[in-house]
């Protein structure tokens, strides 16, 4: 029997407060018509941007949850992993992908481990080769520019000319994924940054520029990858999915920026979720030659 609603298995942490991880993954994918089943990797009182947060590591329970899913013979059109707190959790997700892999499935890995030129404080350099291995299981990866540099063993660039961007995308694709998307690419015009997607089978590169506002909201990477993942699951092309994800993040940031609220709370997706059901009004993606 054909499932009338596509089914996603999501591996992310859950923060009790703050619009990050499962707090944005579930509403975004649900709004886009996708059923989300979760294996929480950890439960936190707030996301890690807040001081003195409380943290419960669920690594011991993850395999038990997965075994129950195996017993129930669940099936998934989409597997989507985000923040994984340890090498053991990466191994668990890799084993899950191996077991539940099937035809016409999208495996999305957001290799969350670094930003602004540095690994997150909870990680040491040993996480890099393990994340590189997990990337090899994916159909789609969405590293930011810092994560891309670590995966490739490169230094963080100040500026990235198009030939370098294309080289990095192809080298990441050589690790295994069919589609590579690099976010937060620096631009000579400091008012902009870029997102570039590469489809290995078509050997095509697509670029979408993003305008800059002086704000730093946690969770925007989770928002971007969730919209991109959902768009591809709906059958949209890579450039349109990139465009939709960039436009949604930009709209969410602009809808939040005018209020005197702490940036730590994240973007007000509640005000913008309905836009995910509407067609794109315009498209500005570029085909990189």
What does this structure look like?
By secondary structure, this protein is of the alpha/beta class. The protein has one domain: Ribokinase (UDP-N-acetylmuramoyl-L-alanine:D-glutamate ligase). Helix content is 35%, strand content 22%. It has eight helices and twelve strands. It has a ten-stranded mixed beta sheet with strand order 3-2-1-4-5-8-9-10-11-12, with helices on both faces. The longest helix is centred in the last third of the chain and has 20 residues, at 238-257. The N and C termini lie far apart (43 Å). The mean pLDDT is 94.
> Which sequence of SSEs, written as H and E, runs from N to C?
EHEEHEHEEEHEHHEEEHHE
What does the overall shape look like? globular
Helix count, per DSSP?
A: 8
CATH architecture: 3-Layer(aba) Sandwich
- Widest β-sheet, arrangement of strands: 3-2-1-4-5-8-9-10-11-12
Secondary-structure blueprint:
Blueprint: E1 7-15, H1 22-31, E2 35-44, E3 55-57, H2 59-71, E4 78-81, H3 87-100, E5 106-109, E6 114-115, E7 118-119, H4 127-135, E8 140-141, H5 145-152, H6 162-173, E9 179-186, E10 192-199, E11 204-211, H7 220-233, H8 238-257, E12 286-288
Distinctive features:
289 residues; UDP-N-acetylmuramoyl-L-alanine:D-glutamate ligase; 10-stranded mixed β-sheet; 12 strands
